[in-house]
């Protein structure tokens, strides 16, 4: 591992793609896909860096010209709005060669001069430093320059200003003339001016003046109503308007767009047209103003990222495929019950690169044509769950810790001993010998938890003690549940940790996905005479899943073959005690076999032993997952010995203080299980002798005896009589 005092000494790469840890193959494919604009399908466990790879791909995408999209009303058919695509930032030559653009940007230049003058005056008055004034001016001016507002935004701003200016000035002029006339007449009547004819004086005298005031009030109300209509008329359809709606605005963007459409519905993904409840009486909102762009349109010339891609409905996947093929997709209302379903725009550009992600099971839920499209113009990659425990990869974990500290910006840096504790936890979570986990999301949670503890203690750096405290504080739900299960079952003696018992075994299991938390799972068996004259029954209870049920059936085959006992003469009852959450998998096979043999032969089992392992029909003990978590559960329960598949012996990673509390015994076959777990005595030796004539080593053929040997001597290997 590299030399450093704290993670502050570790340089953090600027590009996201260089911050991805342990996914060398995936990084190489993503770089290639970004250069050639190819689609990518990434499958793997959560927290292995799929979303970071997608964002990094957007950074690597070749620079293209950004485009804004505006929706205009169609004078011939309002339900078929027109689409206009413009460059977000046109070149100087394009501006000079187009009269409309020249006028548009010339007007913006005049506005910038006034804005800059106003900003300088304001900043001078408040006495801000020059550097801050310059930053403020750049920020304000940048919102309306080519570096800020794009062409689409400028067009919409320009179209909004024109009707507002004309409406405001005309209304004010009308109000001024009317009010001046009424005030003149009212004043003339109030003073009974002799210069005015007697007829006028008589008309404006007395209560008639209040009538003039009422007229003045009506004029004011009329003006306010006209002002309100002018303000919201474009939205309420009070008058015809050609104002466009900007549905795709790339102002301020200099990199390829990255749009995360994970979990979106059809409208958010493909675009939608809003429902308008006011469809009659001329009060409805014009259709083109109700159009909303979707994620496929916002990702134009960029990356569209969809995690858990199988969660998309089949229709959405089909429409997504259409958008990928055509590189443009019209927007229409997604609900048949909405008035927006009547509206359909012209095709809107959506030339994006799709990065889909999920787990292996998601492949079943993907539309075959969508996956074929990705394979035909892209790559598929399966994410790594672990990486080799080498010096180079340990340095990558160091870099990961430095990255997490920099991203969080609220926790102190880690010293060398604290990083070594993180690496130790990465080994434990890997669950495989000489490997480091790549579930960096959970490892990042541990980093932040340790940092929070150090920050709470006002420590300058995170130390190893803070990481150890965080391991307790930041336990997963499964770990907390497992601890409570073990305490409860121990208090009520659901399982034993000492003595001997017939037909009762302390099995081991993992709780939840990922195998991060172990659990002691007691299994009991009872054998009774068959209730049916024709055949016995094998009854297993405990909410078993399909694989667990099959494992029970395989065990009965082992007993038939290896001890010569006809199980059809018995009813065998197997119970997984208090497994309310259900049981799945075959790692309890050795426990089931031992419980059945003990019940049949009446030989007690050592209750100080816990065990795990998958059993083949030939009696071989096969490797399992979650070995470390299961050993931790056995230690917490107070067991003294664990029987573990020999193939998993090096997968167990325990701290020295835990390792000395338990004896781990690797086993290869059912004979090893019987030899270590059953109580010593003549019955045990007799049972072992029954199956000892079979060599259950997978690398050698079984040795035949008795009638089988005699038949082979007389007829030969091919069955022909000699």
Q: Would you write up a description of this structure?
A:
The protein has 25 helices and 25 strands. A seven-stranded mixed sheet has the order 18-19-17-16-21-24-25, sandwiched between helices. A five-stranded parallel sheet has the order 5-8-11-1-12, sandwiched between helices. The chain has a three-stranded antiparallel sheet with strand order 3-2-4, with helices on one face. Strand 22 (614-615) and strand 23 (621-622) form a beta hairpin. Helix 4 packs antiparallel against helix 5 and helix 6 (151-191) runs antiparallel to helix 8. The model is unreliable at 110-147, 164-169, 234-239 and 695-715 (pLDDT under 50).
Helix content: 40-55%
Q: How many DSSP H or I helices?
A: 25
- Give the structural class: alpha/beta
CATH-derived architecture of the largest domain:
2-Layer Sandwich
Low-pLDDT residue spans: 110-147, 164-169, 234-239, 695-715
Describe the oligomeric state of these chains in a short phrase: single chain
> What is the CA-CA span between the terminal residues?
69 Å
The strand order across the widest sheet is 18-19-17-16-21-24-25
How many structural domains in the coordinates?
Answer: 5
């Amino acid at each position: 591992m590299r030399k450093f005092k704290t993670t502050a000494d570790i340089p953090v790469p600027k590009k996201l793609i260089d911050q991805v840890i342990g996914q060398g193959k995936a990084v190489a494919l993503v770089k290639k896909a970004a250069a050639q604009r190819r689609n990518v399908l990434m499958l793997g466990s959560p927290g292995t860096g799929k979303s970071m790879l997608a964002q990094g791909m957007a950074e690597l995408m070749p620079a293209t010209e950004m485009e804004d999209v505006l929706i205009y009303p169609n004078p011939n058919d309002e339900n078929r709005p027109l689409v206009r695509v413009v460059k977000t930032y046109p070149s100087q030559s394009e501006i000079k060669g187009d009269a409309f653009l020249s006028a548009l940007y010339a007007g913006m230049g005049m506005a910038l001069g006034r804005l800059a003058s106003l900003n300088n005056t304001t900043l001078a008055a408040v006495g801000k430093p020059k550097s801050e004034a310059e930053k403020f001016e750049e920020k304000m001016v940048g919102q309306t320059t080519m570096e800020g507002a794009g062409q689409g935004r400028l067009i919409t701003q320009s179209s909004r200003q024109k009707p507002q200016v004309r409406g405001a000035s005309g209304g004010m002029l009308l109000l001024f003339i009317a009010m001046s006339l009424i005030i003149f007449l009212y004043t003339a009547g109030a003073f009974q001016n002799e210069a005015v004819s007697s007829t006028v004086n008589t008309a404006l005298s007395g209560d008639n003046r209040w009538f003039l005031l009422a007229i003045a009030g009506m004029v004011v109300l009329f003006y306010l109503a006209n002002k309100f209509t002018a303000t919201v008329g474009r939205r309420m359809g009070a008058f015809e308007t050609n104002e466009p709606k900007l549905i795709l605005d790339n102002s301020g963007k200099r990199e390829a767009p990255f749009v995360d459409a994970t979990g979106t519905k059809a409208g958010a993904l493909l675009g939608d047209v809003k429902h308008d409840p006011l469809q009659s009486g001329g009060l409805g909102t014009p259709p083109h103003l109700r159009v909303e762009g979707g994620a496929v349109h916002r990702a134009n010339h960029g990356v569209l990222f969809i995690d858990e891609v199988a969660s998309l409905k089949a229709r959405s996947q089909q429409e997504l495929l259409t958008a990928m093929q055509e590189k443009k997709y019209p927007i229409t209302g997604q609900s048949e019950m909405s008035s927006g379903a009547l509206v359909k725009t012209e095709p809107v550009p959506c030339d994006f690169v799709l990065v889909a992600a999920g787990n292996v099971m998601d492949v079943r839920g993907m539309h075959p044509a969508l996956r074929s499209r990705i394979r035909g113009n892209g790559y598929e990659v399966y994410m790594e769950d672990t990486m080799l425990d080498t010096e180079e990869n340990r340095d990558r974990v160091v870099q990961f810790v430095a990255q997490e500290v920099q991203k969080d910006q609220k926790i102190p840096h880690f010293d060398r001993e604290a990083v070594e504790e993180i690496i130790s936890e990465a080994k434990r979570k890997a669950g495989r010998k000489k490997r480091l986990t790549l579930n960096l999301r959970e490892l990042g949670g541990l980093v932040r938890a340790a940092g929070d503890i150090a920050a709470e203690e006002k420590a300058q750096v995170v130390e190893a003690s803070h990481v150890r405290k965080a391991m307790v504080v930041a336990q997963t739900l499964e770990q907390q549940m497992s601890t409570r299960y073990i305490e409860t079952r121990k208090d009520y003696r659901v399982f034993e940790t000492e003595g001997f018992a017939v037909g009762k075994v302390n099995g081991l299991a993992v709780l939840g996905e990922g195998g991060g938390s172990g659990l002691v799972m007691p299994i009991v068996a009872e054998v009774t005479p068959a209730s049916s004259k024709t055949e016995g029954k094998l009854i297993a209870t405990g909410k078993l899943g399909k694989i667990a049920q099959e494992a029970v059936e395989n065990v009965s085959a082992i007993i038939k073959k290896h001890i010569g006992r006809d199980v059809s003469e018995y009813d065998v009852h197997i119970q997984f005690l208090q497994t309310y959450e259900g049981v799945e998998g075959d790692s309890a096979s050795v426990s089931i076999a031992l419980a059945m043999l003990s019940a049949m032969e009446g030989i007690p089992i050592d209750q100080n032993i816990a065990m795990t392992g998958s059993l083949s029909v030939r009696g071989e003990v096969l490797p399992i997952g979650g070995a470390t978590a299961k050993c931790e559960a056995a230690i917490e329960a107070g067991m003294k010995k664990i029987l573990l598949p020999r193939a998993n012996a090096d997968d167990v990673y325990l701290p020295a203080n835990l390792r000395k509390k338990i004896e781990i015994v690797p086993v290869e076959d059912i004979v090893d299980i019987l030899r270590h777990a059953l109580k010593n005595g003549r019955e045990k030796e007799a049972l072992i002798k029954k199956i000892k004539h079979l060599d259950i080593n997978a690398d050698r053929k079984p040795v035949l005896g008795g009638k089988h040997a005699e038949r082979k001597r007389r007829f030969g290997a091919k069955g022909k009589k000699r």
